[in-house]
């Protein structure tokens, strides 16, 4: 009984993990049809923000929940102004440019902080379920994923900004004709997407430690989740994360973590063969 | 590429330079320089593989290193097990080709769009890299060859004359063999591109819908192009493995895929000379920068990539060609045309 509970908890945590990893990317992809190849490095930047600010005596929750999103969000806006905005309409070029940015960031951060892992203490400690020890932090991750999705949903559904965003997502030309400055919408989108990514990176930091090359370990999972999900930000992310999270976690239980990622990829390939536009390209088409 | 290969002077220039380097370099240069050159030759083959599928098939693969690494590991495992290097070299072409066809089936028969294609190819290479990195234990071995995980596979056999496992090639001979492979692949690709098959791929690159409305099977065509590119990359990987007599997961890394992209971008997409020139130029630059040791090489690679996308999207060879063409037409116009026609030309 306890064991089943632990496994169920691990499953939910794996799904929450994928949701956190890929939400920022999904926001940018859903709105702009661009995959930010520097996504992993944006996560890394969020992690480093936590390390540096807690090193200067800032409370770790403040660093995670407030500072990391702000820092990475601002960085995202700068990147959008300097690079991305010149490449609208040239999707492949924007992928290449963001990949260049990713390497530039890895190299740059290595030059500044060195190529070593800096640990962050996991807050809250552990608790026991029967004979098993479970970190309380897992619940923070699950709660954060749920809260994040709820906030995105509420913003898109009930605010003026969300209305503008949905209009731009559906038909950028028509929105432009109706007087919406789509270029500014894209800039804001990229900034918000980056902020969410920074938030995710900050939450990951205590679990993995931070190192300049940490991004590489997460991008496979987040890219796969976003493209299998398709263009709908919330439904897509949730459906893909649910499906792929359970597959990879199941595989991890059976064979160990190495084949978890491979199983993730195989499942995604088969799925994309059947649904080339992602899950929300065919099913739940009109959803958010 | 519309004109036939036989009538293109650029083709003869490239083959001529190639043959000249192949025969003169070993006589003129010292051993160390020859080995440097060998590295450029191997990587040029790798660059050609991406240059072909991107420039002439419209397939932008972000994970070309997956094939490079697959070829390298195939060669390493097979040659250590067999003791000979001839069949492993062939295998290093065939297995990545088959893998390319299988992956291509999923991607092109699913009609994935550009962004999805880029992400899937990248992720395939990434997961291959992760898997290889985790094979350090002794339980991961194929026959006599231990995969070695992040430690790599050491003591991979040097090439020998087919049929005679004792007759190893010395570095100068190896350089000549590799140069011959590069020239053969260049010529083969030029003729492939000029053939009906190649013209159809270019048509698909230009307008996929139109090509399929004209009755061509876009999906099959793309799978074949992608598989050929995979095979060539695999061959390059095998050459790399035997040249270094060592192979590790870095050959599958994202950096390797990115390098190929940067070479092709720098040289010029849609040419075959471009990727080779881009590869040699940038590898040489990396070598020079490596001796400075102040700046991180990955940061430099990334910066070059961004600058190329933003400032020189066409690449060196097409830009140079355009400038040369403009100069040539200006030069031709000057003597035998009066002011009136020149004005008319300007207004066109």
Structure description:
Chain B: One of its GO terms (molecular function) is branched-chain amino acid transmembrane transporter activity. Chain B: The chain crosses the membrane at residues 12-33, 40-67, 87-108, 115-132, 174-193, 223-241, 261-282, 294-312. Chain B: Keywords: Cell membrane, Membrane, Transmembrane, Transmembrane helix. Chain B: It is a multi-pass membrane protein. The complex is a heterodimer of chains A (288) and B (348). Helix content of chain A is 76%, strand content 3%. Chain A is mainly alpha-helical. Chain A has one domain: ABC transporter involved in vitamin B12 uptake, BtuC, CATH 1.10.3470. In chain A, helix 2 (39-55) packs across helix 8 (182-208), helix 3 (60-82) packs across helix 8 (182-208) and helix 9 (216-229) packs across helix 10. The longest helix of chain A has 31 residues, at 2-32. In chain B, helix 1 (9-28) runs antiparallel to helix 6 (171-194), helix 3 crosses helix 9 (218-244) and helix 10 (254-267) packs across helix 11 (273-292). Chain B has 348 residues and is mainly alpha-helical. Chain B has helices at residues 9-28, 31-57, 65-82, 86-109, 114-133, 171-194, 196-206, 208-213, 218-244, 254-267, 273-292, 297-311, 316-336, 339-347; strands at residues 141-142, 145-146. Mean pLDDT of chain B is 85; it is low at 339-348. In chain B, strands 1-2 form a two-stranded antiparallel sheet. Chain B has 14 helices and 2 strands; from the N terminus they run H-H-H-H-H-E-E-H-H-H-H-H-H-H-H-H. Chain B has one domain (5-253). The longest helix of chain B is centred in the first third of the chain and has 27 residues, at 31-57. The chains are: A mainly alpha (288), B mainly alpha (348). The interface between A and B is large, with 43 and 45 residues.
